[in-house]
Design a protein that fits this description.
The protein has 446 residues and is of the alpha/beta class. 55% of the residues lie in helices and 13% in strands. It has helices at 15-21, 25-37, 62-77, 81-84, 94-104, 117-130, 136-155, 158-161, 165-177, 192-203, 216-228, 241-246, 264-269, 300-307, 315-364, 370-399, 406-414, 419-429; strands spanning 2-9, 41-48, 52-59, 89-92, 184-188, 208-212, 233-236, 250-253, 274-278, 295-299. Strands 7-6-5-8-9-10 form a six-stranded parallel β-sheet. Strands 2-3-1-4 form a four-stranded antiparallel β-sheet. α5 crosses α7, α5 crosses α15 and α15 (315-364) runs antiparallel to α16.
Length: 446
């Protein structure tokens, strides 16, 4: 089996396509289940953020896998395959590993170096584990990606390059808002991105925060947290959005809605100058608001254009070196793991041979006492272990190198191992669905 990723992101597709291709939570679950039902895939995990939709799978056929995963992405995103295909990218084996590790480090984000993607990778793995679509390979890969992302942020200065998308968006609105201290802000939504926006605004010194959300309990919980931290905050229902707009200087919206939350008429009716930051995908705010007098709108599309001109930090080179090192280590570990069932089957065959010969010896020398029999048994087993030790250790080392996959085949051929015995070891080593990753992030956006 081999790792394959098919996806699209802000680097390969216009925001208008990404917006239409965005996956709901239900659609993501159905996509994973259908991916496993398709013949080429045995595992699947979907990474879906405001900037990317990617489907990772363990497949046994490359071309069939690409065709099937592309078709499934089109079916579940609602964008026709013919329209979607020009924007899709494909990565295979080590290149797929390199891609995910780069994503985890923030190198492929709209705002280079941002760290929120780690929460979204954790969420993607948690969903795959919950639905039992993430097996050994993808569990290992996504856990590795989380470790590498944390390593990149702790060992380099990539954080200096990477603001969160919230911070970057607010910076784009700064000419319109001026200093945020003393301003009144409205946050629409109560997921992780909205919570980050609220916390960022609180640190900036806004005088008052209003949280509007379709689930009142989550809005109340977030408002209470802000109040406990010293920022005046209140929760309101979405039915009071018009009143909240009329009282706000700045609006940040990031919900999981599939339709517009704020229309141009809503913003016009507010009757006051407004700075609006739309971080949702699909978008929450009517793009026609760009033409409204007194309204300054920054959305994913405008942020993508602005980030393209942002300077790259020198620390990016250090992160790229970490990614290259970790890709090599992951590949070596996976290649070495593939030969383990063959080595186990070889040792099992050797143990059977020893048992058979000792049984034959008992028949020929029935008068041996227990001490003599034990000494002979230990000697024979020690000889076999010593003969097998060097070749099995060396074959694991060789299998971990590029092009080492053939050593398992050579070992099976040289020792005439039963393929069914090797397969039985592989089945026995296949783990149960791994424990779900804790602290699932809800409603996050890259």
């Amino acid at each position: 089996m081999s790792l394959l990723v098919v996806g699209l992101s802000h680097r390969s597709a216009p925001v208008s396509v990404l917006e239409r291709a965005a996956l709901t939570e239900d659609a993501r679950g159905k996509l994973l289940q259908d991916a496993l039902a398709a013949e080429p895939a045995s595992e699947a995990v979907a990474l879906s953020t405001c900037n990317r939709i990617e489907l990772y799978a363990d497949v046994d056929k490359f071309h069939a896998g690409v065709a099937e995963l592309s078709t499934l992405l089109a079916q579940h995103s609602g964008v026709g395959l013919e329209e979607l295909t020009p924007h899709l990218y494909v990565h295979y084996e080590d290149r797929a590993v390199h891609h995910l590790l780069s994503v985890a480090c923030g190198l492929d984000s709209m705002v280079v170096g941002e760290g929120q993607i780690l929460g979204q990778i954790k969420d993607a793995l948690a969903v795959g584990q919950e639905l039992h679509t993430a097996g050994r390979l993808l569990n290992d890969l996504f856990q590795q990606a989380l470790r590498v992302g944390k390593r990149a942020h702790s060992e380099t200065g990539i954080d200096r390059a990477g603001q969160s998308l919230v911070t970057f968006g607010l910076a784009q609105l700064a000419p319109a808002t001026g200093p945020l201290a003393g301003k009144r802000a409205l946050v629409v939504g109560a997921g992780s991105m909205s919570s980050l926006a609220a916390a960022t605004l609180a640190r900036a010194g806004v005088a008052h925060l209003t949280i509007a959300n379709r689930t009142p309990e989550r809005a109340v919980r977030l408002a209470d947290q802000l109040t406990e931290q010293g920022t005046a905050a209140q929760a309101v229902s979405m039915t009071r959005l018009a009143t909240a707009l009329a009282d706000a200087d700045l609006v940040v919206s990031c919900t999981g809605s599939t339709g517009l939350v704020l229309t141009a008429d809503d913003l016009r009716a507010a009757g006051r100058p407004l700075a609006v930051l739309d971080l949702a995908m699909p978008r929450d705010v009517d793009p026609a608001a760009h033409g409204l007098a007194g309204v300054v709108l920054a959305d994913i599309e405008s942020l993508a254009a602005a980030s393209a001109d942002a300077p790259m930090a020198a620390d990016v080179d250090a992160v790229q070196a970490i990614v290259a090192e970790e890709v090599a280590a992951f590949g070596a570990a996976q290649r070495a793991a593939r030969i383990t069932p063959t080595v186990v089957a070889l040792r099992a065959m050797a143990a059977d041979v020893v048992a058979g010969e000792l049984s034959r010896l008992d028949g020929r020398l029935p008068d041996l006492d227990d001490k003599q029999r034990a000494e002979i048994t230990q000697t024979v087993r020690r000889v076999v272990d010593k003969l097998l030790h060097a070749p099995t250790v060396r074959v694991k080392q060789l299998a971990g190198e590029p092009g080492g996959a053939g050593y398992a085949d050579a070992l099976r051929e040289l020792f005439d191992l039963d393929p069914q015995a090797v397969a039985a070891v592989s089945r026995a080593e296949t783990p149960r669905p791994p424990a779900r990753v804790p602290n699932r992030i809800e409603g996050g956006n890259e």
